[in-house]
Write a structure and sequence with these properties.
Elements (H helix, E strand, L loop, with lengths): L2 H15 L4 E6 L16 H18 L4 E3 L9 H9 L4 E9 L9 E5 L3 H18 L3 E6 L3 H4 L5 E8 L3 H7 L2 H19 L1
Helix pairs in contact: 2-7, 4-7
The structure holds zinc ion.
The site of zinc ion has 5 residues, from loops.
């Protein structure tokens, strides 16, 4: 065991001892479900999974226990995504998506939450961190009864990390360093709230 892995193991134990929640990372879509608009040129599912994996790395390195609802390009139903999270003894559900719109001028970052004060507080923190880290325009933190939010037993948020239907924003998102920045921003907000 290398020193960093010992350190990571100790951090995991410390977090578990303090009752830190498991962070359930939900990469939107997958398999036959490409995400986005019908006929959208850049598929949402791949970028969502990429950022989800990067977020998983950020959180694990900080000692958090994580669960991913999918780790590859396959389809997972919305109810199974919720079941994975709701089966934990204590969890926080963070869903990762990219946006799409018929209007190619639409761009920016938005967050969704639905139930409970903690979901709203976490959504707000992630949103502010994302805007600060990326300089992307904000479209707000919105309350909407999306399936994965309304069926969540624990705090749950959904991140829309930019529009793949906007040429400029899609170009930014296609860069791996930008996707790392997105993951680190979401991660920093989660870490500061639950550590
Ligand atoms: Zn989506």
């Amino acid at each position: 065991m290398k020193f960093p892995s010992i350190l990571a193991a100790l951090l995991v134990l410390a977090c578990a001892a303090l009752g830190a929640p498991v962070i359930v990372i939900d990469a939107g879509h997958g398999g036959h479900d490409q995400g986005g608009m019908p006929g959208q040129r850049i598929a949402e599912k791949g970028y969502a999974l990429d950022v989800a994996k990067r977020l998983d790395g950020v959180l694990r390195r900080s000692g958090f226990r994580t669960v991913m609802t999918r780790k590859g390009d396959y389809f997972v139903t919305l109810s199974d995504r919720c079941r994975i999270s709701n089966a934990q003894s204590k969890a926080v559900f963070v869903s990762i998506h990219f946006n799409g719109a018929p209007n190619p001028d639409a761009y920016g970052i938005e967050m969704y939450c639905y139930r409970g004060r903690e979901s709203a507080a976490l959504a707000d923190r992630i949103y502010r961190q994302l805007l600060a880290s990326t300089g992307a325009p904000g479209r707000g933190v919105k309350s909407r009864s999306l399936y994965v939010l309304s069926h969540a037993r624990f705090p749950a948020v959904l991140c829309e990390l930019g529009f793949l239907t906007n040429r400029g924003e899609a170009r930014r998102i296609s860069s791996s360093s930008y996707r790392q920045k997105l993951a680190e921003a979401v991660g920093a907000a989660v870490i500061s709230r639950y550590r």
